[in-house]
Design goal:
Pfam families: Cupin_2, HTH_3, MerR_1. This protein has 304 residues and is α+β, with helices and mostly antiparallel strands. The protein has three domains: 73 residues, Orthogonal Bundle (Multidrug-efflux Transporter Regulator, Chain: A, Domain 2), CATH 1.10.1660.10; 63 residues, 434 Repressor (Amino-terminal Domain), CATH 1.10.260; 111 residues, Jelly Rolls (Sandwich). Helices cover 29% and strands 22% of the residues. The strands form four sheets. Strands 7-8-9-15-10-13 form a six-stranded antiparallel β-sheet, with no helix packed on it. A four-stranded antiparallel β-sheet has the order 1-12-11-14, with no helix packed on it. Strands 2-4-3 form a three-stranded antiparallel β-sheet. A hairpin with a 5-residue loop joins β3 and β4. The longest helix has 16 residues. The chain starts with a strand and ends with a strand.
């Protein structure tokens, strides 16, 4: 049975009052990374996220992120904090308020807002990064240009292009939209869908991300329907909100799926449950359980 949990529409304008006469001593937080290599100080953290130190302090005040402190009182951010704040930046850029961001980041299946089953970038990530860099250069775009078009920080895009960061489904969808391609187009080389109405299991295009998500393409050439078979490892999912033109339908075959629409409406689906909605609604999804989740997902027009 589907459990439909609809969040209350909490509002938080995220405004941080400006202090008058702010002590200049606060500038001491602008320091190089900790000598022990265990953390990053606020100025460098802000650069990595593509935000300002003021925004980072505001997110802390809103209890969206909680950096540790040195004995001297300086804020120190971990890699997990950086990834969390990149998601905060992306979500707020998409119009999600502070309460909606908090609910998404602290949803089931996530630890401190970061999927529990992340793995290190692999050759797959390096291949994706190279494809993005080639497309960007072909269009004559700078990192800042692409950042402006996607809402992703320039430092994050640079890390993806160099293969130093494994891109999420949400970030690939945003980047693909800029280049008139899709997630599958960025994740694989040239591919021609079968012309036959029948797709044999060995003819499927199968793509594994470094984010614990497997996508099996079940589509045939010439169709506006895009049937995909997703497998989400525990704690893994879109890793960010997605919105685009069209409609989508999905059916949970095994495991449990968490879906959040518009940053507030939450659903937990079990095997046999299905759902459909307009794709323009910001949607984030993931596996909140402790076993793999398999979902048959159909988009129209083709999205992935």
């Amino acid at each position: 049975m589907t459990t439909d949990v609809t969040a209350t529409n909490g509002h938080h304008d995220g405004h941080v009052p400006r202090r008058s006469g702010r002590p200049r001593a606060a500038a001491k937080e602008v320091k190089p990374p900790a000598a022990d290599g265990q953390g990053i100080y606020i100025q460098q953290a802000a650069q990595l996220v593509g935000a300002t130190p003021v925004q980072l302090r505001a997110w802390e005040q809103q209890q969206l992120v909680t950096p540790s402190r040195t004995p001297s009182g300086y804020r120190v951010y971990s890699i997990a904090d950086i990834e969390r704040m990149q998601r905060i930046q992306s979500l707020t850029a998409g119009g999600v308020n502070a309460e909606g961001v908090r609910r998404i980041l602290n949803g089931p299946g996530y630890s401190a807002g970061v999927p529990a089953a992340l793995t290190a970038p692999s050759s797959q990530s390096r291949s994706i990064g190279s494809a993005i860099r080639d497309l960007r250069k072909e269009r004559g775009l700078t990192l800042r240009d692409l950042s402006s078009s996607t809402g992703l920080s320039a430092s994050y895009i640079s890390s993806v292009e160099r293969g130093a960061a494994a891109p999420s489904i949400a970030s690939l969808q945003k980047i693909g939209a800029v280049f008139n391609t899709n997630v599958l187009g960025l994740m694989s080389e040239s591919y021609e869908a079968p012309c036959s109405p029948l797709v044999r299991v060995h003819d499927r295009r199968v793509l594994d991300s470094d984010k614990g998500v497997r996508i099996e393409d079940l589509s045939t050439a010439g169709s506006n329907l895009e049937p995909l078979l997703f497998t989400f490892q525990p704690g893994c999912g879109s890793d960010g909100a997605i919105s685009h033109e069209g409609e989508e339908f999905f059916y949970v075959m095994s495991g449990q799926l968490y879906l959040c629409l518009d940053g507030s409406d939450e659903y937990y689906l079990n095997p046999g449950d299905s759902m459909s909605y307009r794709s323009e609604r910001a949607h984030e999804f993931g596996n909140p359980g402790d076993e793999p989740t398999t979902v048959l997902w159909i988009n129209t027009p083709r999205t992935f």
